[in-house]
Write the structure tokens for this entry.
Amino acid sequence: MKKLAVYPGSFDPITNGHIDIIARASAIFDEVIVAVLVNANKTPTFTTKQRVEQIRAVTKNFKNVKVDSFKGLLADFMRQKECNIVVRGLRAVTDLEYEFMLANTNNKLNKNIETIFFMPSEKNTYVNSSMVKEAYSLGGRLPQCVPALIDKELIKKYK
Ligand code: PNS
């Protein structure tokens, strides 16, 4: 049977840290679905369509990676995809509490769900979408933290 995993997130925007996790998951699972959250309560910087397109473009070399979006509970999306493995990245200790809470809650909502954590390489440990956006919005650039396409789109966004 095909080993399928879902990597959910906001990806607003996708960073080299996310790509690091996608690469690791794609080497272990037969198929990885990168699932973009349709943020119902907050306005993201990039629309769902833009984020899906950006991720498709920057992951096109991973042949077993698909990109999709979801609304509502991740636990329901997992049922719909008939998948029980959630992939998440664990960067530093600061991620731990939130990630454990998320994994536990998902498991309470759908007891079949297992969350598997991947650690990014050291150079991607402190890469974070919010900080990247703050830097670009204030006129800075972090091309070492994001793919070239995202660097370009962030410059355009905050011009
Ligand atoms: O990249 P992020 O923002 O840390 O990803 C968080 C995400 C999208 C994985 C999480 O917020 C999520 O799954 N949201 C959907 C609603 C849900 O199922 N919440 C968790 C249980 S209440």
